[in-house]
Design brief:
With 215 residues, this protein is of the alpha+beta class. Helices cover 34% and strands 25% of the residues. It has a six-stranded antiparallel beta sheet. Strand 1 and strand 2 (102-108) form a beta hairpin. Helix 1 runs antiparallel to helix 2. 19% of the residues are buried.
């Protein structure tokens, strides 16, 4: 049985909801079954403030949930979805391609980070997700010797599931283009193109990225 891993961001979100849910219930209890001290003007004002705080939190929570769902782009044609919390993931490596003048930052979900830290990447474990954030490169306007990111080109992800993605080397691929994050590919077979390119890295479980050492 595979254990479900919850991202730190989602865990924190759930924890906040639990704590404020407890506060809401406490305020509701004192509102419906008020002790005698509540009717003192100063205590009544305190309870009204607590109720306002709880109401404000739940309003923000609903708005945040709606925004998250609205902002998610469509899945790739093969069903691979853009991970919700990839902006919070740790960096695994970086790369610079001189053939197409692009800079790349490679990030990983908690499963991938644990595997990289422990050297367990041959093969990478099921559940590992690697993300590559790609920008066109340019020279820094104030320091021409430095190469820095320019416009966002695309983001792409590799999802490890040896059984589900057996036809593409155990990895599911997805790519989203530009700031609009438009899914790449005309049909579900677009990932054969990705798998073909990654054949060159078969010796490292079809992954080009070399995890960097971070002191």
């Amino acid at each position: 049985m595979r254990l479900c891993r919850v991202s730190p961001a989602r865990h924190a979100h759930t924890g906040l909801r639990h704590r404020f849910g407890y506060l809401h219930n406490l305020v509701l209890k004192f509102t419906l079954n008020p002790p005698e001290w509540r009717f003192k003007s100063s205590n009544l004002e305190l309870m009204m403030r607590l109720q306002a705080v709880v109401l404000s939190f739940w309003t923000l929570l609903v708005v945040a949930n709606s925004a998250t769902a609205k902002d998610l782009p469509p899945a790739a044609p093969n069903g691979v979805e853009l991970p919700k919390y990839y902006r919070n993931w740790r960096v695994i490596g970086v790369s610079h391609r001189t053939d197409n003048n692009s800079l790349r930052v490679i990030v990983g979900n908690p499963v991938a980070i644990q595997a990289a830290d422990g050297g367990n990447t041959s093969p990478w474990p099921d559940g590992a997700v690697l993300g590559k954030l790609v920008w066109k490169d340019r020279s820094h306007p104030d320091f021409p010797a430095a190469t820095v990111p320019d416009a966002l080109s695309h983001v792409e992800f590799m999802v490890k599931d040896a059984a589900k993605y057996r036809a593409t080397g155990g990895w599911g691929y997805g790519r989203w283009l530009g700031e609009a994050q438009i899914p790449y590919g005309d049909n579900a077979q677009f990932d054969r193109e990705c798998a073909s390119c990654h054949q060159a890295a078969k010796a490292t479980d079809f992954v080009f990225t070399r995890p960097v050492d971070i002191p």
